Amino acid sequence: MVSAHALLFSLDYQHVQIPFEITLWIMLASLAKIGFHLYNKMPTVVPESCLLIFVGLIMGGLIYSLNDKSPPVMDSDIFFLYLLPPIVLEAGYFMPSRPFFENIGTILLYAVVGTMWNAFGIGLSLYGICQVKYFNLQDVSLLHNLWFGSLIAAVDPVAVLSVFEEIHVNEKLHILVFGESLLNDAVTVVLYKLFKSFCEMPSIKLVDILAAIGKFFLVGIGGIFIGLLFGVFAAFTTRFTKTIRVIEPLFVFLYSYLSYLTAELFHLSGIVAIITCAMSMKRYVEANISQKSHTTIKYFMKMWSSVSDTLIFIFLGVSTIGNNHEWNWPYICFTIIFCLIWRALGVLVLTFFVNKCHVNTVTRKDQFIIAYGGLRGAICFSLVFLLPEFSRKKLFIAATTVVILFTVFVQGMTIRPLVDLLDVTRRRETSPTVSEQILIRFFDHLLAGIEDISGHWGQYYWKDKLEYFNSRYLQKILLREYDQPKSSIVLLYEKLERKHAIELAEAGQLIHTPSSTSLLRSRETAVSIQSPASTNRDIMDNIQEILTTNLYKIRRVAPAYNRYTLPGEMGTAEQAKEILIRRHKSLRLSFSQSDSDQSQKKLHPGLPCEWQGLEHLGHLPLLF
Amino acid sequence: MGSQASTLLRHEELEEIKKETGFSHSQIARLYKRFTSLDVNGVGALSREDFLRIPELAINPLGDRIISAFFPEGEDEANFRVFIRILARFRPISDKEKSKDAKGPEPLNSRSNKLRFAFQLYDLDKDDKISRSELIQVLRMMVGVNISEEQLGVMADRTIQEADEDGDGAISFTEFVKVFEKTGIEQKMSIQFLD
């Protein structure tokens, strides 16, 4: 009781209630996380998501017993607008784009066709179950079942991420499941809204169904379009932030969030939009911003997504307790069974088609993991709470809760031993080395060339075309310092050297030897080709020193390495010109040689004569 | 051959090619159509200029090397057998081929042959080693002229340092193969030939 006049101390909880409670929840989530990691054994047996749900259950139980009413249910708005975007943004920003696009066909197939297959399969089978008189379920209509099927079919990115992160399967498998879980949002949104509108309409005509199909394309493509738009804006904005480095990270977050909200505004797929935005802006933004901004972005993204993730699972636990459920066990059990069966069937059938038209086959083991890794999570949960009130809503809520708990606990806990048991190929723990990167690039070019020769337009063709478009137009507009483009091999090399030197600096020593010893050996190798120009040992040592000690300069000091004053950017057009000029020179030389010295077939043993000329060419400045 | 480009393949030749390369009838027919469309002069064999007429190939950084692979030992013309033999290396390895292993001669598109083909593109003097200078040449082709000699040299040294095991300062074929052990090279080195 507070008296009317002023006191020394007063208590005004209402004033700060909302931010206070939010902060307390986040604090609870973070403390829980610390707690788990203190016990090192736990995360290996029980995935973090399970533990968090458990904490949530305890909290929910506490609140229930204290207040004797149902604890706060996670508001769907809070989930969709505040908790979900950071997680998806982090996923999209750090998505390895190369494997993603290499497998995009498969991912899309699983996401779109697979989800629809699951939704209709589960919905129809459950309707079949409802017909059985014994279960007392006959008032659940077909439409409601299908509606339920559509929301329970979707694989959840949050759950998948948290579980797969800990088990380190190989990259391709990870990207398949993960990509699918992200992209099926478009399908879920459409199906959910479709059935919702069908429930409200008196009758359903064919034209409605066709409109729904059209809507699906609109949702997906619209999401992509919005994402690209905002991505381009973000990249463009960062071009001008050279003088105010401090707010650079903010732009990344603002633009991504805007893309999500804009897509949701138009009832398009927000998840697809935010992922597209992140993936498209990443390349240009990273080239424009400073090193510190880059680190900031990385850390903030990870932090926010981690907090969101934790909060979601805790709320899941809290919301389970209470009066919201109608426990009709036959329905619930059959839901779980059908989820598993339809997912397994779907994966089998789709993989069959995938393997027919793809070189990269998805093995049986991979298929099993994909099917088993189809975890449901908070998205289903929020969607079911969004259902309008009707007589059987609580039944659906109960079923959803149990399915989520089952998938997260049972499947989440057993997937790790199963992965070990089946000996699924694990992810390589090391990043590609310089030699691997170079050789991979070599193969890319080689395959593009062979495909051109054989007249076959494979994926490399599109990749080349995209690269051309990128360097011709996009880089000019979106990059600030486009006069120092470097091929990605050089960038990777610099990154590795930087990492290497940081490690060395931390260990407190520098190394000279590699360059000088290999130089010695290369002198001794009996190669009859003209030896390279820079055999000066001092230069080599110097460069290695420069690289290892003054690394941060490399990023900006690149023009110093540019011995040739080339005008403008090294675009593909310039590159093409260079290559063609080189080729003409070599052809000319070869003709002149074959004319003049007919008797001397080969100057050097084993070398075709055209290549003789090229040796000299390698050290001539190129003329433009 | 040596006759008009419109000559169809004789049946025996078709069977031989099929056995040697493992392509199906329709794939061979399709590739033959491609061969004749490239052979604009109708001589029944391709010259370097015919290859260079493919625009994407002309601006491919490794274009020269790839083309040279079709003209072994200084010959000037590539007939259809040579053409399809090289393309056969990029055929994906199917599962049943993997299992019938040591029964006959190694198929053209085996893992080892794929890698050897790539190795030969690097190794010009055919001494079975990729020396530092050969590596620098290829690197130079792939990174353009912005990079100085020294930088190229350092990168080549780093590459050799990572791959070289017997310490001879060059990469032999076995060391080359080892680099790819961790990557799924079969997928990388295959293209799906259309029927």
Automatic annotation (TrEMBL), chain A:
GO terms for molecular function: potassium:proton antiporter activity; sodium:proton antiporter activity. It comes from the Eukaryota. One of its GO terms (biological process) is sodium ion import across plasma membrane. Residues 513-601 form the Sodium/hydrogen exchanger regulatory region domain. It is a multi-pass membrane protein. It is found in: Cell membrane. Keywords: Antiport, Cell membrane, Ion transport, Membrane, Sodium, Sodium transport, Transmembrane, Transmembrane helix, Transport. PANTHER family: SODIUM/HYDROGEN EXCHANGER, SODIUM_HYDROGEN EXCHANGER. Belongs to the monovalent cation:proton antiporter 1 (CPA1) transporter (TC 2.A.36) family. NCBIfam families: b_cpa1. This is Sodium/hydrogen exchanger. It comes from Oryctolagus cuniculus (Rabbit).
TrEMBL record, chain B:
PROSITE patterns: EF_HAND_1, EF_HAND_2. Residues 26-61, 110-145, 151-186 form the EF-hand domain. It comes from the Eukaryota. GO terms for biological process: protein transport. The keyword Oxidoreductase does not apply. One of its GO terms (molecular function) is calcium ion binding. This is EF-hand domain-containing protein. The gene is LOC100354380.
